[in-house]
Design a protein that fits this description.
By secondary structure, this protein is mainly alpha-helical. 77% of the residues lie in helices and 0% in strands. Helix 5 (94-122) runs parallel beside helix 17 and helix 8 (193-199) packs across helix 9 (201-227). The longest helix is centred in the last third of the chain and has 33 residues, at 316-348. Mean pLDDT is 81; it is low at 417-434.
Length: 434
């Protein structure tokens, strides 16, 4: 694994710089929108448009890469993302920000897919799971460190926008200097959302709920903290804490999901996170921030667990084809989340943020309880692995799917339960929608 990491250092460095810029940009724009007096619901809409662009980019990037190649696509969209950041500071109007957020979302999704597919192509099968875990550290570490860069200048000035532009522009340099061969052109696979939902209703709803809360937290978390009266430095620390909580929560929840009934783990984690979020509604001060951080720690890893739960009901071919549908459901949620929480905050104030987070997780837990009466759980010895998935792109989700597929095939060839034959049987049962 270390050999793969060292040989891929230009890719990891480029990804780290991108995550620094992306992390700083999201929080900076939320603070600047609050400073400029944008209505909270409008700010939420602008932030949602980023994720809409991200979803479109994730779906269209493979086509662009197939036409002109990885290197040209990465260079072009790095320049476009860099320019879009600066235009936010030049044109301080919500309509212009909405356009630039769409461009930024499309550009960042394309950049991540190029980098992730390149990384996936250079990783040996035996090292894929460990490299995926290291990539998770790079993603969350970069986004978390990006929050701390807020302290270098006043968000009301131009400096931080320039810093984001520089980070995104420089990220292309190590990527373009890599000596490894370009990866294979990704081939888009048909997306069957209805079929995916029939296969695993709770898993699909879990990925959607993860998108809702992820978009809300990363898009509007800084606005929430600012409206509580926190100084810029405190906002940065709060957002940093959320990023670290999202990363650290992957390990204990993944451990539990591999050793206990996965559906039960989803239910308990969602209800616990819902209780923490709703508890934040009725308290003030540090307790409110602390409970929300606990909610993120408990429930943000539910995306990875939900993907694993879906895989438990899929055969080998289904695992490969499911990546696009999983990413799309998460993307839909992320595109809705910031606007929905913005509307809630415009009506209820900062309390609306905590109410939204707690309500989504409580609803997910309730749906999980309902599903226990509709279908028996997958036996523990037939569950596949839970793998950390740091972001919902086809490349990252696909990498995790490949690891799950390889382990399923290994188990099947060894005659162990939980392999391809068991998964195929689960699909053949064709569970009811209800």
């Amino acid at each position: 694994m270390l050999q793969t990491v060292f040989s891929s250092w230009p890719l990891f460095l480029g990804l780290l710089l991108l995550m620094l810029g992306n992390g700083l940009q999201g929080t900076l724009l939320g603070l600047r929108a609050d400073i400029e007096g944008f209505p909270t619901a409008i700010t939420g809409l602008v932030m949602s448009i980023f994720y809409a662009g991200y979803l479109i980019g994730a779906l269209r990037a493979p086509i662009l890469i197939a036409r002109v190649g990885h290197i040209r696509v990465f260079a072009a969209f790095s320049a476009l993302a860099s320019a879009a950041v600066l235009l936010h500071a030049i044109f301080l109007a919500p309509w212009m920000w909405a356009i630039m957020r769409l461009v930024s979302g499309f550009s960042f999704a394309t950049l991540f897919i190029v980098a992730e597919s390149w990384l996936n192509g250079q990783t040996k099968n035996a090292d894929r799971a460990k490299v995926l875990g290291f990539y998770m550290f790079v993603v969350f570490g970069g986004m978390g460190a990006g929050q701390l860069l807020l302290g270098i200048a006043d968000p009301a000035d131009f400096v931080l926008f320039t810093a984001v532009s520089v980070l995104v522009s420089v990220a292309v340099v190590p990527m373009l200097l890599t000596s490894g061969p370009a990866p294979a052109i990704p081939t888009p696979k048909p997306i069957d959302l209805k079929g995916l939902f029939r296969t695993s209703p709770l898993g699909v709803v879990g990925t959607f709920a993860s998108g809702l809360t992820g978009g809300a937290v990363f898009g509007m978390g800084a606005v929430f903290a600012s409206q509580l009266g926190l100084a810029v430095g405190a906002v940065a620390l709060f957002m940093f804490a959320l990023m670290m909580a999202a990363m650290c929560g992957q390990f204990p929840l993944g451990y539990l999901a591999d050793r206990f009934d996965r559906r039960l783990v989803i239910i308990i984690a969602a209800l616990a996170a819902g209780a923490a979020g709703l508890g934040a509604v009725v308290v003030d001060g540090p307790a409110k921030l602390g409970l929300l951080t606990v909610a993120v720690f408990i429930a943000f890893p539910l995306y990875s667990v939900s993907v694993a739960h879906i895989n438990d009901h899929l055969d080998n071919d289904g695992m490969t084809a499911a990546a696009g549908g999983i990413m799309m459901m998460n993307g839909f949620g992320a595109a809705v989340g910031p606007f929905a929480v913005g509307v809630a905050m415009s009506v209820l104030g900062p309390t609306g943020f905590a109410l939204f987070i707690g309500g989504v997780y409580a609803a997910l837990g309730g749906f999980g309880v309902y599903r226990t009466f509709r279908r028996p759980s997958v036996p523990l010895d037939e569950q596949g692995p839970t793998l950390p998935i740091p972001r919902a792109t086809p490349a990252a989700t696909g990498m995790a799917q490949e690891v799950a597929l390889e382990r399923a095939e290994t188990d099947a060839s060894a005659g162990e339960p939980g392999g391809a034959e068991t998964a195929a049987k689960a699909v053949d049962e064709k569970p009811s929608l209800v």
